[in-house]
């Protein structure tokens, strides 16, 4: 009797197991499946149950998770879009206006190209972060290299414009004979070769992809490279301050020597000094926080501090077209002609002042 009951129980147990296997097509001895006995199937969360009984569905579940978009990245992408639109307009005006071929306009055009690339780099960085797998080294190195090249070229072009302004006042009589278009093109080519070389350094091995402990606040740039770039910027800023100080001294001296209408020249020179001060303040306010933070911080610092210093630095490329292009009377005339087909009388008759330089 006992043996009969045991045999019947064994048969029922065997039949139930076969029925379960035929309906769900799960092999208990399949090594590709992960079975967990510690989780309760009656748990209110369905994730452990899916992971235990349906391993084939797990990759699809993970792939369906959407990465949360950071508002800081959105702000940088919007800033990049604004930068691209502004500087594309400047490049179009310079390209389609044959009279704007002087050395000054070549430097303004080079600055606009660098800022345009910086804006496109910010947009591509957003795309690479949220639409493309950024774990691929090529994508990371391409994004960072473009941003380093573009922003470095922007800073060096601003320095070149400052030097050009200083020479136009210091050597006013021989400026137009010494500062030829060929010389300006050679200087622009030197700037871009230098900046593209800086952008290629991460791709040539100067990165922290293999040793994350050496990363700076901008991965994959190493801490040492970030410090070198920041110190270089501080030297450029110090040189610009010295040049603008000399420009102010020369402007005041010229105003005293050739002034006929003393009151007008005093107002004009004061306006020029105020403009130069605003240019320096805007440049320093945008870039100094990021440069100093790059020196003292590394990848272990909170990322919000990096965003808070990077965003003002990118805003410098928003301000550059307004300071160096849209304030120029010749570019203003070209814009009026392109948009309205005419030039306002007050603009065409307005004399050039030191604030326009």
From TrEMBL:
It is found in: Cell membrane. Residues 86-324 form the G-protein coupled receptors family 1 profile domain. It is a multi-pass membrane protein. The keyword Iron-sulfur does not apply. Keywords: Cell membrane, G-protein coupled receptor, Glycoprotein, Lipoprotein, Membrane, Palmitate, Phosphoprotein, Receptor, Transducer, Transmembrane, Transmembrane helix. Pfam families: 7tm_1 (PF00001). The chain crosses the membrane at residues 72-97, 104-132, 138-163, 183-206, 226-252, 273-292, 304-326. The keyword Glycoprotein applies. InterPro entries: GPCR_Rhodpsn, GPCR_Rhodpsn_7TM, GPR_3/6/12_orphan. Belongs to the G-protein coupled receptor 1 family. This is G-protein coupled receptor 12. It comes from Xenotaenia resolanae.
């Amino acid at each position: 009797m006992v043996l009969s009951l045991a045999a019947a129980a064994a048969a029922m147990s065997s039949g139930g197991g076969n029925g379960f296997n035929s309906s769900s097509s799960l092999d208990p001895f399949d090594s590709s499946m992960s079975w967990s006995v510690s989780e309760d199937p009656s748990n209110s969360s369905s994730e452990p149950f899916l992971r235990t009984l349906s391993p084939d569905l797990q990759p699809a579940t993970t792939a369906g998770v959407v990465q949360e978009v950071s508002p800081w990245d959105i702000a940088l992408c919007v800033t990049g879009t604004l930068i691209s639109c502004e500087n594309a307009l400047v490049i179009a005006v310079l390209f389609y206006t044959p009279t704007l071929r002087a050395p000054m306009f070549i430097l303004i055009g080079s600055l606009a190209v660098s800022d345009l690339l910086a804006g496109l780099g910010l947009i591509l960085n957003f795309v690479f972060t949220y639409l493309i797998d950024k774990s691929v080294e090529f994508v990371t190195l391409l994004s960072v290299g473009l941003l380093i090249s573009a922003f470095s070229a922007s800073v060096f072009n601003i320095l070149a414009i400052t030097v050009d302004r200083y020479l136009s006042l210091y050597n006013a009589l021989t400026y137009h004979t010494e500062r030829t278009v060929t010389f300006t093109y050679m200087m622009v080519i030197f700037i871009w070769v230098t900046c593209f070389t800086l952008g290629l350094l991460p791709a040539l091995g100067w990165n922290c992809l293999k040793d994350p402990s050496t990363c700076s606040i901008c991965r994959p740039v190493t801490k040492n490279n970030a410090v070198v770039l920041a110190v270089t910027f501080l030297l450029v800023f110090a040189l610009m301050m010295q040049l603008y100080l000399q420009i102010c001294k020369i402007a005041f001296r010229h105003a005293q020597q050739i002034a006929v209408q003393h009151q007008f020249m005093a107002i004009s020179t004061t306006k020029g000094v105020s403009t130069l001060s605003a240019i320096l303040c805007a440049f320093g306010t945008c870039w100094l926080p990021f440069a100093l933070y790059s020196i003292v911080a590394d990848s272990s610092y909170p990322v919000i501090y990096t965003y808070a210093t990077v965003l003002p630095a990118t805003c410098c490329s928003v301000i550059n077209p307004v300071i160096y292009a849209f304030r120029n009377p010749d570019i203003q005339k070209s814009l009026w002609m392109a948009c309205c087909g005419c030039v306002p009388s007050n603009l065409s008759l307005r004399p050039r002042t030191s604030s326009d330089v």
